[in-house]
Amino acid sequence: MNLGFSLPVFGKAAATPGGIARYAREAERAGAAGLWVGDRLLSPVAPVVPYPGYDTMPEEFHTVHDPFTALAVAAAVTETAVLGSSTLNATQYQPANFARQLTSIDVASNGRLLPGLGIGWSPDEYAAVGIPMAERGKRLDDLLDLLETWWSEETVAHDGIGYAVAESHVGLKPVRRPPVHLAGFGEKALRRVAERADGWLPVWPVPEQFPADVLTGTLAKLRADAERAGRDPGALGVALRVNAAPGTEPEAIAESVTKIVSVLEPDHTFVDISYLTSSVEEHLDLTGRLLDLTAKG
After folding, report:
1. In total, how many domains does the chain have?
2. Is the pTM higher than 0.90?
3. SS in 3 state form for the chain?
4. Domain with 95 in it: what CATH number?
5. What confidence tens digit (pLDDT) does each residue in 150-169 have?
């Protein structure tokens, strides 16, 4: 099993100076196939919409790293691991800057970037960046259009939503076109995955909260919809995030990962261990244990 892990970008482990570089380097040496980031701009004291499953926000979100910086650091100290995001709240960023940042990270990593994008759910974060939350769906479509042009044309011109890119030379191109994966379970989000994305970003919670056929059935529908849209259904990839709840034992995580991977057969799998560790040392220890357990499983 090719198993990846979350970089220490949230919580107490994130506050360790040099911690991301150390973890990325040592996790790759231990056998981690991927290194992944999430994205959180704010942890409001009294959020308009609490984090799912919480009355407010998890304590881990009180301390967060910039995801682009984390990926750039990981790119500098690793050689083979996929560098992924699940997910970047893509529509909270200025699109031209966003395109340049993704391209730069892909080049720095020699083509290892897997950008997983979403539209977020926090009204507080949208208010902080001055972007109307109601426009997030159409802004994502616009961003996907810009990325396609940015990565394929020598000169780029784009009339976007609330911005315009004058015809400009864009000589920095990714090593290979990064495979854009999109998150979501809603009808519109899944339609966008089927019609526009290179892959889907499902989530599997541990302890399990729903049967595996929720994911396998959704994936089958996505691939059927992709085929109806004139696309190759077999080319639609899957990057699975496994969310381990606080207090979950490594053996339970490994057992659940082995189960879901055997039926969903994702192209990439990573375990988000942000809620299970409070130091880089613990992050590394748990990474090693899970690699050992899944190798046996």
Report:
1. 1
2. yes
3. CCEEEECCCECHHHHCCCHHHHHHHHHHHHCCCEEEECCCCCCCCCCCCCCCCCCCCCHHHHCECCHHHHHHHHHHHCCCCEEEECCEEHHHCCHHHHHHHHHHHHHHCCCCEECEEECCCCHHHHHHHCCCHHHHHHHHHHHHHHHHHHHHCCEEEEECCCCEEEEEECCCCCCCCCCCEEECCCHHHHHHHHHHCCEEECEEEECCCCCCHHHHHHHHHHHHHHHHCCCCHHHCEEEEEEEECCCCCHHHHHHHHHHHHHHHCCCEEEEECCCCCCCHHHHHHHHHHHHHHHHHC
4. 3.20.20.30
5. 999 999 999 999 999 999 99
